[in-house]
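Design review, sub-item: ligand-bound model
Attendees: FS, YL, KQ
YL presented the inputs for the cobalt (II) ion complex:
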Amino acid sequence: MNSLNHIFENNSNWAQIISEEDPDFFKELSKGQAPEILWIGCSDSRVPPNQIMGLSPGDVFVHRNIANVVVHTDLNSLSVIQYAVEVLKVKHVIVCGHYGCGGIKAAIDDQNHGLIDNWLRHIKDVSRFNADSLKALSEEEQISKLCELNVIEQVKNVCGTTIIHDAWKQGQALTVHGWIYALSNGMLKNLDVSISSPGEFESLMASENEQ
Ligand code: CO
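KQ shared the predicted structure:
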């Protein structure tokens, strides 16, 4: 009946190991969370945030969707960002994409994928915004480049929310980062688009015409 019994066994072993290492771990964590990081990443099963950053339960507040997209009016991602910034007072928002992202590939392969094509329109927009820098590349290079450009675009979208602006206006220390993860070797790369103030955000927006 239950083919997932091994997961309960894994869970029991895991909880036991943690408790042996730190008998108060779960008791302390059950009192509340104070993560310093909000992770906005892809739903891809190969990119589990805590695991690839070597962090523990309680360290990261997480939002994931297909192709790590932050849509201006998406109440789901906006609610996560608001709670993380206003209530949890995270210090870092990390938008992390990954090379070989199926969502990015599907956005530009001109095939029909059903409902998800509506979500992937946002990636098509990123492709259109950057058509000049993409057209000289091979198909494989285009996908990798678009994975990076999509992260940068979503960093801009995060920074453009009223939530981040209000936090900066109130002097809250908050940095929005753009990272990308390589499935092929497990390594994270910083795309160097870290934004900590309205001035830095304006500079990033102004640079988009120079790419
Ligand atoms: Co993906």
